[in-house]
Amino acid sequence: MSAALIELSGIERVFHLGDSEVHALRHLDIRVAASEYVAVMGPSGSGKSTLLNLLGLLDRPNAGTYRLEGCDVTTLSAKEQARVRSERIGFVFQSFHLVPRLTAAENIALPMILAGIAPPRRAERVARALRDYGLENRANHRPDQLSGGQRQRVAIARATIMQPALILADEPTGNLDRNTGEEVMRLLEGLNDQGVTLIVVTHDGDLGARARRQLLMADGVLEQDRWRSPRVD
Is 233 among the domain residues? Predict the structure, then answer.
């Protein structure tokens, strides 16, 4: 196995609801190598979304250590975590999460604006992304003027514009028809083939079966860690 991109050790996440404690994650130990393709699966309440939020530095564990590319990111300040999130992690969501008032090109450029990248370089990268994702004739369209597949392609372009090491995809085909969902998965898997680590969170068994590795969650515990032979396209 290649070098570890993600190392989780003894991760615990507890939520307090009134007088009750909900153990969303329990003593989780997971190692994901660079360039892996992993599906995180399980029923509602199994801890999938909590794990996704922790991996994406959108939440912090109550206990344990999360190392990303060898750095203990659990010890970083909120500002430092935001920088790592911006530069090394891309997100693709079921509901796209595009900014409604921005065009496709402006949505794609947004991470670079937040990172302070100069306008000429932004324009060059956005033009290349629009071309790569077949969106050149949709560059000036707002999300409400795009189809579901086009919106998800904009979201993937935005997620990868900073050239991250890790893409986290949360039910990426959930709002798409079968054919469009297949197209989106091929785009994501193409990125994985280029060396980007891809983690897909899903309750869809067929979608999860595409991954080379399945992490099966239940009640905050990793119940199974299954490996499959590489997919055949």
Answer: no
Contact 26, 188 (CB under 8 A): no
CATH of the domain at 183: 3.40.50.300
Do residues 108 and 158 lie in contact, with contact meaning Cβ atoms separated by under 8 Å?
yes
| Tally of domains within the chain | 1
> Do residues 105 and 111 lie in contact, with contact meaning Cβ atoms separated by under 8 Å?
no
- Is 81 domain-assigned? yes
Q: Which domain holds residue 51?
A: 4-227
The 10 Å Cβ neighbour count of residue 100 is 8
Angstrom distances, CA of residue 29 to CA of 10, 53, 84, 147, 215: 6, 16, 22, 40, 11
Question: Which residues are registered as beta bridge partners of 6?
Answer: 32, 68
In a domain, 44, yes or no: yes
- pLDDT tens per residue across all 233 residues of the chain: 568 999 999 999 999 888 889 899 999 999 999 999 999 999 988 999 999 999 999 999 999 999 999 999 999 999 999 999 999 999 998 888 999 999 999 999 999 999 999 999 999 999 999 999 999 999 999 999 999 999 999 999 999 999 999 999 999 998 899 999 999 999 999 999 999 999 999 989 999 999 999 999 999 999 999 997 654 44
Count Cβ atoms below 10 Å from residue 77 Cβ, excluding itself.
8
| Residue 212 maps to a domain | yes
